Amino acid sequence: MDSSRLSDAKIREKAKQIRLKSIEMVYTAKSGHPGGSLSIADVLATLYFREMKIDPANPVDPDRDMLVMSKGHASPALYATLSLRGYFPETLLPGFRKLPSKLEGHVHYGVPGVEASTGSLGQGLGIAVGMALASKLDGRKNRIYAIIGDGEIQEGSIWESFMAGSKYRLDNLTVFLDKNGVQLDGFTDDIMPMPMIPERVRSFGWNVVEIDGHSIPEISSSISKARECKDKPTLIYAKTVKGKGVSYMENNPKYHGNAPETEELYNQAIKELSTQ
Ligand SMILES: Cc1ncc(C[n+]2csc(CCOP(=O)(O)OP(=O)(O)O)c2C)c(N)n1
Fold first, then answer.
1. Distance from the alpha carbon of residue 192 to the mean position of ligand 1, in angstroms
2. Tell me, what's the pLDDT at 19?
3. Which residues contact 244 (CB under 8 A, 6 or more apart)?
4. In the chain, what are the domains?
5. Residue 121: CB within 6 Å of ligand 1?
6. Average pLDDT over the chain, rounded to an integer
7. What are phi and psi of 86, to 5 degrees?
8. Which pLDDT tens digit goes with each residue over 155-208?
9. Of the residues 184, 217, 240, 261, which has the maximum number of CB atoms within 10 A of its CB?
10. CA of 243 relative to ligand 1 center, distance in Å
């Protein structure tokens, strides 16, 4: 057992920091995407602070694990995670969405620790499939992760990637679906109902694990199950709450792509997140 493994409580504290920094960034920039950043914070904290084999001092190690944030608008959460993990100084975060900062509004490859530019939905999963295939062809033992949104999976290219993932038996690929039920301008069930997603993805030849995407033990055990599964890629269907941790943002499509509008709302968000 790895004695450096962080406790669940410590991972939860990292997730809290990711949420706080995400809100600070979008409030400072007066723009950005808080809702889908807050929903995926626990998954990012568990991956980067417990599960992924990475070394921020050597971000181009060819044997590193890699993550593609296919829902690239969740850049605040990824940038906050990477800075907390030591890829770049936290003092750079307030530059988010401002020139000449590299912290572009959608995930940008020029930022240390970022593996692919994303933001055009539906593209990142294909990139991750390509990375996983390349790793297999090169005989590497590293693992590839991707995070996709439940609005994003309305893109046909996501299903092409699912097909390719099983065709090439990419058991080194683990994909988190952030199932928060909300997309840009409403609820996914109203805009494009997609029932039985786990069954559909299974029928594409994938291993599918369903979890509470805010439970650190469930996130970790699902990653272990993905590691144990041979010959198939794994989709982790993570049920989450969009805007998790800020009462007025939770399940509210308005805060998909809007910063807190007033200082009062900003202070409320920080207070609520700080006291969890
Ligand atoms: C190809 C493409 N079409 C439209 C958009 C605009 N857009 C940005 S985020 C978003 C909704 C995404 O919803 P979801 O995948 O559920 O993300 P989450 O709720 O997790 O933030 C849309 C339509 C885009 N970035 N790319």
1. 13
2. 98
3. 19, 38, 39, 41, 42, 214, 250
4. 8-274 (3.40.50.970)
5. yes
6. 97
7. 100, 15
8. 999 999 999 999 999 999 999 999 999 999 999 999 999 999 999 999 999 999
9. 240
10. 15
